[in-house]
Amino acid sequence: MDIRDLWAESMAGMLARPIRSALTTLGTVLGITTLVVTMGIAATAGNQIVGRFDELLATSITVEVPQSSRQALVSWEAVAELRRLRGVLSATALAQSDKSSNLVVTANNLLDPTQVAGQTLAVVAATPNLQATTHGRLLAGRFYDAGHIIRRDRVVVLGEQAAAMLGITRLDHAPAVFINDRAYTVIGIIGGLQREQILAGAVLVPPTIGPDFGLKNVTRVLVGTQLGAAELIARQAALALSPNHAGELQVIAPPGPKRARDGAQDDVNGLFLILGLVSLIVGAVGIANVTLVTIMERVAEIGLRRALGATRRNIAAQFLLESSLIGLTGGVIGASLGTVAVVTVAAVRHWTPVLDIRLALAAPAAGALVGLLAGLYPALRAARMEPVDALR
Amino acid sequence: MPEPVIELTGICRDFPADPPVRALDNVTLRVDPGDYMAIIGPSGSGKSTLLNVLGLLDRPSSGSFRLDGIETTTLRDGARTRLRGARIGFVFQSFHLLPHRTVTENVMLAEVYGRHPRRGRLARAKQALEQVGMGHRTGFQPGRLSGGERQRVAIARALMARPSLLLCDEPTGNLDSRNTEAVLDLFDGLRSQGLTILVITHEDEVSARAKRRVRIGDGVLTEQE
Ligand SMILES: Nc1ncnc2c1ncn2[C@@H]1O[C@H](COP(=O)(O)OP(=O)(O)OP(=O)(O)O)[C@@H](O)[C@H]1O
Ligand SMILES: [Mg+2]
Asked: Which residue among B57, B98, B112 sits closest to A301, beta carbon to beta carbon?
């Protein structure tokens, strides 16, 4: 028997009852779609740094500077060195100590002189570009600049919560705060911090004012990098900040973006993969069932083909090919639906869809395999029929 | 003397039942090329059983059956199937046309199995249809043909693979007298071209046209003069 004839006979057999064949593919369509969507979405999502929080996390490096030795491991000026590295967007040096974290701060509130109760707040010395590193925004006034630092101006910037606690909302009368009985002019209020949110409750002072509160040396450096540069910068940061004592600095790098996404999704993926496989099995049972019914309906046809010289193998091959074609059709439809679904989800989330070409090709093949396995028993039944019985 | 197309010697066919049925009882028969033979007998006498044995669709329980000189009773299933496809054409009472295929496709089915060239298949099918006077209905589906037309398509299919033997089981059983006449005329024409034809029938009109008549009763065969 010519292979083209086998193909033609199987196609004709499948297309003789198009609606039934279409319905028979449903289980396979469902299974293959689920599998393609699950794997496609996993691959697509895995290629993204999901959401804003993750992006910030993936670009944030913190360097802790130990304070045990007498000399300063990192100078205030060293932060400028760090900014010269490719991939560093901003870097801020901070100084804070246990003592400076619990200072009584009072506001002289001109509008309400009765409210003079002190608040216990943290005082933190910081280089001026804190706003960029923490992605914060100035709610009022301005941040101190290089001029303030050089002139040793006694100015402070209040964190949003600290300002609220002190009752300072407006700066047009140049309010002052008192710490250790000395007055400092409030020139700005910063809020909306996305990183180091604890600073919202702090009083920020220029590095040159820090010594007033015992804050001489840098205790921590915050670094913001470009997306994808964090790993490299983390390796270079310590050396750039402190060429002689690089080993003593503790660099806290973000977890690699790969690990960031996997954890939560693995369970969900496993569940959907099982769901897809179950659908495939249901689809296979469906194909087996319908093929068996079809064969019982086509007993006379089988008898005729045997009378015309078809061998048992010819009969088995035809029905196997028919069920495989049904499975293949289900696989092709499933792969197409799955691909469309993945692309749609990616478009809605503004992701780049990632589709493994091997997956797109394997899906129809898997469908055909399901059909082939499902057709084994019915095809065997058809081949076993005796021509006399089939023609009776 | 030419080799006989069919040579049956002491053929028996027993069916396991309670009590066992002997549907063919020691049948001996010789059919030469170009013979036109009718097999007649009452219902249940073993006509179809004989035809199934002759068509290699069924195996006899004992005896020898030589088809074109080839001993068939010792052949395995595959070889019997090939022999059947190559040498024997069948015409059934119920036509056995595939309902979803056109007339031409049904006829071409005869060349799908076995070793036939694909080239020229359509032309051969058209020619076979012309031969039975159905050349004007090639694109039809069987459901839209009359009973007589369907049987003629089935005969075209049987002729397509150029068999040496045409086996017909009640070929006119579902036809009226006019269509019966047309089919019998067709058989006459085929016989004159040298085809060997065996027809099972219970109609005198049909058996009268045949050159030889054998009667079967309770599995026993007797030739009539
Ligand atoms: N598979 C079988 N098992 C048991 N008995 C059978 C079987 N096939 C046929 N028979 C018996 O063999 C006998 C001959 O049957 P067969 O079909 O050859 O008759 P027939 O001459 O063709 O009859 P009809 O004219 O009604 O078609 C019958 O008695 C039938 O009951
Ligand atoms: Mg009969």
From this structure: B98
Task: Tell me the ligand closest to B221's alpha carbon.
Answer: 1
Q: Encoding tokens for residue A219?
A: 């205790």
Q: How far apart are CA A74 and CA A238, in angstroms?
A: 9
Sign of CA dihedral A370, A374, A379, A380: positive
Mean pLDDT calculated for residue range B57-81 = 95
Q: How far is CA B46 from CA B17, B35, B94, B173, B213, in A?
A: 15, 21, 19, 17, 15
Helix (H) or strand (E) holding A53: helix A51-58
Nearest to B110 among A9, A300, A308 (CB): A308
Angle between helices A257-297 and A312-348 (to 10 degrees): 140
The two tokens of residue A371 are: 């059909």
Ligand that comes closest to the CA of residue B50:
1
**What's the Rg (C-alpha) of chain A?**
36
What torsion do the CA atoms of B120, B121, B122, B126 make, to the nearest 10 degrees?
Answer: 100
pTM of the model: 0.69
Q: Which of A224-228, A305-309, B5-9 has the lowest mean pLDDT?
A: A224-228
Q: Which residues on adjacent β-strands are paired with residue B220?
A: B217
ipTM (interface pTM): 0.95
Any alpha helices (H) in B71-224, and if so which ranges?
Answer: 77-87, 103-108, 121-131, 147-160, 177-192, 204-209
Beta pairing, strands A182-191 & A137-141: antiparallel
pLDDT in tens, B107-165: 999 999 988 899 999 999 999 999 999 999 999 999 999 988 999 999 999 999 899 99
CA–CA dist A178, A196 (Å, integer): 25
Query: Left, alpha or beta for A379 (phi > 0: left; psi -120 to 50: alpha)?
Result: alpha
Contacting residues of B for A386, CB less than 8 Å apart: 58
Q: CB neighbours of B103 closer than 8 A, spacing ≥ 6?
A: B129, B134, B137, B138, B139, B140, B141, B142, B145, B153
